[in-house]
Amino acid sequence: MPTRVHEFAWPDRVVIGTVGVPGERTFYLQVRAGAQIVSVALEKQQSAQLAEKIDEILDQLITVKGNPFSVPTSSPVELDDDEPLETPEEQFRAGAMSLGWDPTTAQVVIEAYPLSDVDTDDDDEPLDGNDDDTEMLVVRMPVGTARAFTKRTREVVSAGRPTCALCGYPMDPDGHTCTLPEV
Asked: What are the tens digits of pLDDT across the range 15-40?
């Protein structure tokens, strides 16, 4: 079956957002260009890693001698996006993701692939022999948009439950039983 590619070359909006209350949130990578909107569910850690790695790429580009890309060191104020997600309808849940840089367009490139439902045997071979990952998301965003994306993502990730100062685990609003780490 051919792979359906949801590609956004110059999106109007690309953000990480959540639905639900802290501790029960679902994270989404949401992209919009005109009337086309795609929402891909992510894990909190995937969201955090994505922001971290994009910042690393942009910070590296700043250090390149004769850098022609004019990479901002922080999020341009005019690109900040604090609006909620547009009603997310999950296209798929992301499994593997890749991140890259396209110097011909000066854009950060994100690729997201669906989480595979295929079980494996002891040799890590698929049991059903069916490789039906039929969708993927490709998002290209300029450097300013990428900085704004990472700023928002970090804010969204950190807006969850507070962390216990003693054990480091998240605290629920209705109480917390502290389990100190073993020494």
From this structure: 999 999 888 899 999 999 999 999 99
Q: What's phi and psi for 16, nearest 5 deg? A: -105, 135
Q: How far apart are CA 36 and CA 16, in angstroms?
A: 17
Give the end-to-end CA distance of the chain in Å, rounded to a whole number: 53
Prediction pTM value: 0.81
Cβ within 8 Å of residue 124, ≥6 positions away: none
Secondary structure E strands in the chain:
4-8, 13-19, 26-33, 36-42, 90-102, 107-114, 135-142
Q: How far is CA 110 from the centre of its chain?
A: 9
pLDDT score of 131 more than 70? no
146 Cβ contact partners less than 8 Å away, ≥ 6 residues apart: 54, 57, 58, 107, 108
What does pLDDT average to over the chain?
87
Radius of gyration of the chain (CA): 19
